[in-house]
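Why do we care about 3D structure at all? Because function follows from shape, and shape follows, mostly, from sequence. That is the central idea of this module. The next example makes it concrete: a single protein chain, its amino acid sequence, and then its structure expressed as tokens.
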Amino acid sequence: MKTNNCITLKDVSIGYNNDPILSNINFSVKPGEYVVLFGPNGSGKTTLFKTILRIIPPLRGSIVYDNDKSPGFGYVPQRQYLDEIYPFTVEEVVLMGTFGQLRSFCPIPKASRALGERCLKDVGMLKTKSMLFAELSGGQKQRVLIARALTTKPTVLLLDEPITGVDITARKTITNLITSLHKKHQLTIIMVTHELHHIPEFVNKIIHIHDRKLLLTTREKIISASGIDEIIHYRHI
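And the structure:
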């Protein structure tokens, strides 16, 4: 069914082993939106991400995609680790994003390598393609992982705490990068964070998890609230 939304959640409950973390989730994301999922650690943000991505099924309810077809997702997980015992180069890490498009046991085609280079260029990391991933700084690693997500040719880019654990300069670089990719590729962005100052100032759609409820609010309302409990008076999704 054709809609104006690329993702719609209807009466969704999420969790594990039939034990819900969050229930009665109802919200939608329009193509090209920049949405921030904001809330404290352990509130269910990552579980919600994985449910949207169909990594885990919803306990109840349904997730509807535009034209009943799952959009092209690019996913940058939280605290992504690669076993640094293995000497992966930056190029090899980025090309991992193309593996789902290749036949088993086939060599990586030139087109995939060219795509990897374009994605590295997009994140400003092309000059590092021959370096070992393990030798990069935290901010550089994050940009490489974003490049890896871009090789899936996504229409929706999901980033789970993309600037947590990096220095202030790297945070600014990554935030500006995500904003640039959003505009350049007309990507739909869904970003998770638990820190208010990580939310770009222009973002005006924030889905806030508070007290096991999802609330639609804005950065300005969060800042102006005299106490976090006042947010419960904002419009429920």
